[in-house]
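ok so for the tutorial part 2 we go from a plain amino acid sequence to predicted structure tokens. step 1 is just haveing the sequence, like this:
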Amino acid sequence: MGVFSRFMDIINSNINSLLDQAENPEKMVKLMINEMEDTIIEIKTNCAAAIGAENTAKRKVQELEGLVDRWQKRAELAISKGRDDLAREALLEKKKLTAELEKLRAESERYDQLVKKYKADIEKLNEKLESAKAKYRAMREQAAREAEEAEARRKASSGPYTYTYNWSSKNKDADPVERFSRMEEHIDKMSERKNQAAEDKDTELKFKDLEEQEEIESELEQLKKNMNG
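step 2 — the prediction. this is what the tokens look like for a chain of 229 residues:
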């Protein structure tokens, strides 16, 4: 596709409308930015070439203007010397150069208008480019914010630790602070049960000792009775 066709497509396009219809707006605007940057480079290259051609045409115009003026003066000189034949030749040469001069002036004017158009096109396209870049930056920033928010939600929902306690679904969805409080409460209860079990075991052992001593004392008394009897 030619540079002018691409340029007009971009200039006449509505960026927001194109993005609304795109499946991947971020990718679409990035492609538009690349296309605009490439087009600007081509237009600047063509503009530089047009400026070079315009300068060449202007230089030739000045040269021909000097030649036309020279042949005009030669014709006047020939007339003043009574050489009408030479005057006719001078005027004929002047006529040829004048025709060529008019063509070069028209060519120079065309290049001048083309350079102005190129510069105007570059300015318009740069405005479009800055708008597209701003749109792209906003989309990237929005995508980054959404990614951060998603990550924050993921961390908040999963939590930084894994517990062996069998939490209910209600506890899993609870606020992290509340979950920590419930965990501490659970640990405290487990410690209390462990301590109570230790105390109960110690009491059980004490009673067993007492019961064993009672049995021994009873057997001892029975033995004494038997021996004394």
